[in-house]
Amino acid sequence: MNQQGNSTLGMVLMLLLLGGMTLHATRTRLAQSMPLVADAQQHHQDYWQAQAALEWGLRQNWPQADSWQCQSEAEQQWQSCLLHREDDDGLLSGRRAGSTLWLFRQVSLHASALQTQPHGWIDYCPLAKAELCPPQDEPAGL
Questions:
Q1: Residue 82 exposed, middle or buried by CB count within 10 Å (0-12, 13-18, 19+)
Q2: CA-to-CA distance for 51 and 47, rounded, in angstroms?
Q3: How many CB atoms lie within 10 A of CB 105?
Q4: In which band, very low, low, confident or very high, does the pLDDT at 106 lie, cut at 50, 70 and 90?
Q5: Is 122:84 a contact under the CB 8 Å cutoff?
Q6: Is 104 helix (H, G, I), strand (E, B) or coil?
Q7: Are 133 and 125 in contact (CB under 8 A)?
Q8: Do the beta carbons of residue 64 and residue 74 sit within 8 Å?
Q9: Which of 90, 10, 98 is nearest to 53 (CA)?
Q10: Which band of pLDDT confidence, cut at 50, 70 and 90, is reported for residue 2?
Q11: What's phi and psi for 16, nearest 5 deg?
């Protein structure tokens, strides 16, 4: 009778040990996943802020220029830049200030007003050389 109690106690201890090891492994895995979740969350925020900056940039007045020209919205910390291209085409970019995520939209220029081109969304700089893409430095005043 004494041995039956010892074997039951041994089984309970083994179950507790296995449960503790499982909980430790789960906690470790969760701790490793938290930075990935934070990175994904930051990417989503940057993406939607870049979308908003593009929409804001569409409503701005853009004078004729031969290179990138940027405008900033200080309250929301948006930056939108426009590059006039051949004919009346242009490339509009937008981002949240401090972010490295730019979104682009192909636009048509009509008397300093912008019209979006159908299927003109681009999530990377379509220019052949990286140095032709919008300036990466922070605009003054943000």
A1: buried
A2: 6
A3: 22
A4: very high
A5: no
A6: strand
A7: yes
A8: no
A9: 98
A10: low
A11: -65, -40
The tokens for 125 are 């700089």
* Token pair of 66 as six digits: 């031969």
Comparing 9-18, 55-64, 108-117, 132-141, the range with the smallest average pLDDT is 132-141
What does pTM read for this prediction?
0.70
- Output DSSP code: residue 141: T
Structure tokens at 89: 């085409």
- List, in order, residues 6 or more apart from 81 with CB less than 8 Å away: 57, 68, 69, 70, 71, 92, 93, 94, 134, 135
What contacts 90, CB < 8 A, 6 or more positions away?
62, 82, 83, 84, 106, 107, 108, 109, 114
